[in-house]
């Protein structure tokens, strides 16, 4: 017992900054949950959901090097599972007014957590069937298959009127407004990803990313390892989709066009393929950035009426800013680095050094 | 050399973001002699064309009636990017940052449904302008609408097909990924079967997806069933293509559809083949139903002299604004809950698209629809149908 205490003490001594940071973060979320208005709350919730799905995508695309584009499809599965199982039974007749809900589903109502996990598991099952042929191959096949899959899922959901209510979508999903659901899940996903990436599995993922042949020669089971990564990614994405449905309170197939996937692709490329902290930073940057630029859509208050300040301008500016970032940070904001304390200290040191060097050089020039 | 520049640029990014936040906070401290009304529409993305037409109507109405209760009415326009997640944040932003007392919009029922939860929990009344899906107002005390519903439109066209065209057998082509089209087809089927008393009156049904180009498969089936008329509610481009391909296959049965057909693209895509296509709509600019309608047409022509015809959704935008202002006046205050109660009590309000009475669901009870047809490459008034 004494020994475990000692271990804990040593661990805390080593990671006290992280521990303090976590505590501050939790208090911050708690405070935000009490004081933030519903607009900011919605945005912050959306950020957390984007963190979850982007991290899942980065696990497959960034860490394992398998180009998967099925995020919209897996999210749809998670979202619809939550929608179908959490809508109150009494309001179902009003929602399924064109065609009644299939009798075997009509009276099943599950608690939110159960439906959420069920959605994740449903995604895993589907991912297994897509992965088993595609992950045996090398190259672009996975990208093509997953892209096709997410379109197929959308079309299936459009046509299964008695289960998903087709194009009409499902509304009146009990909503979550507390930040704890999304941030709690996001934290769990972040911790799970960190633990996974630095475990032996994570090293196997990275080995596959770097060179499949070399990895195989070292004894890494290619198919099994890729599958593990793909299934875990699908699970988290399904959960993210479920939270998304509960945040909006409504789902319909049009939400899950493959363009939704590009949002997450944008985030992981911007943050850095293979960087957890980069993904988190980029999720917040993209979600909050688009909203912060909204003032560009409104007519300017300068007095003169410039015609360029009209709806749509913010997207132009946003794309321009993205282009600049990608030009200067070709590997994303973080590359494959992580925002650790050491990394920050190093950056700080190098900036300090650069500044002092500049100072001496200008002094030298003066003489 | 590159590093300092990149740092500078990221700084610029941060500054613009900060500027965005700060500009948001300054508008929230609005003074009390202004009443803010939010307009929440898709101004970019797939539905931008529809959203813009509605905003035109709202802005025109705002120009004509800029004041209520002695206070200036300010419109706050928010773009929802034709995206559901964006729709909820845009609505929440209007309520929290801009402190609007009422919201108008949005084009597209699913966007309105997504925002429904936000307006309900924040207790801000919202008026849907052209969202025809019953689910927009169902179970939501804070959502109202000025247009008619899918069931009504379906009934109108079923009556038209059965009484005016003397059709006994009808084929349906629906855009299965579009809630509007699926709803309309269903309600058409129900009332047509009732009118003819024949449970097999619908002889064929074809499904297609938004963006499809080739409809020959569906049309060959329909040709074999030999219907008297074809009901094909759906997006204008696809519908025009369907009619074109049907004529090429030698199908001569008349095509009937819903209000979405009434766009110039329908005629440019369909060309001579869409001549004689019949649709129901909310409004006709050559034949306004009310005095308010005449005023609206005159003012619109003054404001946009180069437009050929006036879209029905623009008239609905006008009505939505005018009805909301009327409610604020009757409420006697700009308190959102008082406005909601006044909106719910709206009775015989004279709008440009007809007399509006709000029922218990928050829907406008309208019993008059307009039937238009394409004649010489133009939408022409044909008939108005009253159903009780």
Describe the structure.
By secondary structure, chain A is mainly α. Chain A has a single domain (20-336), classed as Orthogonal Bundle (ABC transporter involved in vitamin B12 uptake, BtuC), CATH 1.10.3470. Chain A contains 17 helices and no strands. Chain A has helices at 2-14, 16-35, 38-63, 71-86, 92-95, 103-106, 112-134, 141-159, 161-164, 179-197, 200-210, 212-217, 222-248, 259-271, 276-292, 313-328, 341-366. In chain A, helix 7 packs antiparallel against helix 13. The longest helix of chain A is centred in the middle third of the chain and has 27 residues, at 222-248. The radius of gyration of chain A is 23 Å and the shape is globular. The model of chain A has no long low-confidence stretch (mean pLDDT 87). Chain B is α/β, with parallel strands linked by helices and 388 residues long. Chain B folds into two domains: 33-148 and 291-367, Rossmann fold (3-Layer(aba) Sandwich), CATH 3.40.50; 151-281, Rossmann fold, CATH 3.40.50.2300. Chain B contains twelve helices and 16 strands. Chain B has a seven-stranded mixed beta sheet, with helices on both faces. The radius of gyration of chain B is 22 Å and the shape is elongated. The chains are: A mainly alpha (367), B alpha/beta (388). At the A-B interface, helix 3, helix 8, helix 13, helix 15 and helix 16 of A face helix 1, strand 3, helix 3, helix 4 and helix 6 of B.
């Amino acid at each position: 017992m004494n020994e475990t205490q000692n271990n804990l003490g040593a661990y805390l001594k080593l990671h006290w900054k992280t521990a303090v940071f976590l505590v501050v973060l939790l208090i911050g979320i708690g405070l935000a949950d009490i004081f933030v208005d519903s607009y900011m709350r919605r945005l912050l919730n959306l950020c957390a959901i984007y963190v979850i799905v982007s991290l899942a995508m980065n696990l497959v695309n960034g860490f394992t090097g398998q180009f998967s584009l099925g995020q919209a499809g897996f999210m749809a599965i998670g979202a619809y599972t939550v929608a179908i199982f959490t809508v109150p039974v009494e309001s179902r007749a009003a929602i399924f007014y064109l065609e009644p809900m299939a009798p075997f589903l009509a009276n099943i109502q599950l608690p939110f957590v159960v439906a959420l996990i069920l959605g994740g598991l449903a995604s895993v099952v589907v991912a297994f069937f897509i992965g088993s042929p595609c992950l045996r191959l090398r190259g672009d096949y996975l990208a093509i298959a997953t892209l096709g899959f997410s379109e197929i899922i959308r079309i299936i959901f459009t046509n299964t009127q008695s289960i998903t209510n087709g194009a009409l979508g499902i509304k009146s999903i009990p909503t979550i407004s507390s930040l704890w659901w999304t941030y709690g899940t996001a934290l769990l996903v972040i911790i799970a990803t960190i633990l996974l990436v630095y475990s032996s599995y994570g090293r196997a993922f990275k080995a596959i990313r770097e060179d499949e042949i070399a990895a195989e020669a070292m004894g890494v089971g290619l198919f099994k390892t890729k599958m593990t990564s793909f299934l875990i990614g699908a699970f988290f994405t399904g959960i993210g989709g479920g939270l998304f449905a509960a945040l909006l309170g409504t789902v319909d197939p049009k939400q899950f066009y493959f363009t939704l996937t590009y949002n997450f692709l944008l985030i992981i490329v911007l943050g850095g393929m293979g960087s957890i902290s980069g993904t988190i930073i980029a999720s917040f940057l993209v979600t909050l950035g688009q909203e912060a630029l909204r003032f560009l859509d409104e007519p300017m208050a300068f007095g003169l009426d410039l015609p360029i300040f009209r709806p749509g301008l913010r997207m132009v500016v946003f794309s321009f800013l993205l282009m600049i970032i990608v030009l200067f940070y070709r590997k994303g904001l973080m590359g494959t680095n992580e925002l650790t304390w050491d990394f920050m200290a190093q950056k700080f040191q190098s900036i300090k050094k650069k500044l002092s060097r500049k100072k001496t050089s200008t002094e030298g020039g003066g003489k | 050399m590159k590093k300092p520049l990149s740092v500078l640029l990221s700084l610029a990014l941060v500054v613009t973001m900060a500027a965005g936040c700060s500009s948001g906070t300054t508008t929230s401290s609005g003074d009390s002699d202004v009443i803010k009304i939010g307009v929440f529409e898709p101004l970019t993305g797939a539905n931008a064309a529809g959203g813009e037409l509605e905003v035109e109507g709202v802005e025109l109405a705002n120009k004509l009636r800029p004041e209520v209760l002695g206070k200036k009415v300010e419109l706050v326009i928010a773009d929802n990017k034709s995206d559901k997640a964006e729709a909820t944040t845009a609505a929440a932003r209007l309520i929290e940052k801009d402190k609007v007392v009422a919201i108008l919009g949005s084009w597209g029922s699913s966007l309105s449904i997504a925002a429904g939860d936000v307006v309900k929990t924040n207790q801000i009344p919202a008026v849907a302008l052209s969202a025809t899906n019953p689910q927009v107002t169902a179970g939501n005390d804070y959502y109202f609408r000025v247009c008619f519903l899918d069931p009504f439109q379906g009934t109108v066209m079923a009556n038209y097909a059965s009484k005016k065209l003397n059709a006994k057998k009808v084929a349906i082509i629906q855009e299965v990924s579009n809630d509007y089209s699926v709803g309309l087809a269903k309600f058409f089927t129900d009332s047509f079967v009732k009118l003819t008393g024949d449970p097999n009156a619908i002889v064929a049904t074809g499904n297609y997806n938004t963006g499809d180009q080739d409809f020959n498969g569906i049309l060959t089936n329909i040709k074999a069933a030999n219907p008297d008329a074809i009901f094909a509610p759906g997006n204008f481009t696809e519908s025009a293509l369907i009619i074109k391909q049907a004529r090429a296959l030698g199908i001569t049965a008349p095509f009937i559809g819903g209000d979405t057909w009434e766009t110039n693209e329908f005629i440019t895509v369909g060309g001579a083949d869409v001549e004689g296509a019949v649709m129901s709509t909310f409004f006709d600019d050559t034949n306004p139903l009310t005095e308010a309608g005449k005023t609206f047409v005159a003012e619109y022509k003054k404001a946009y002299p180069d437009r050929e015809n006036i879209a029905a959704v623009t008239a609905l935008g006008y009505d939505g604004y005018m009805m909301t202002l009327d409610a604020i006046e009757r409420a006697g205050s700009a308190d959102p809950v008082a406005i909601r109660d006044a909106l719910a009590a709206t009775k015989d309000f004279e709008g440009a698209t007809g007399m509006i009475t709000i029922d218990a669901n928050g829907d406008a009870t309208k019993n008059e629809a307009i039937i238009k047809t394409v004649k010489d490459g133009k939408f022409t008034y044909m008939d108005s149908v009253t159903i009780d």
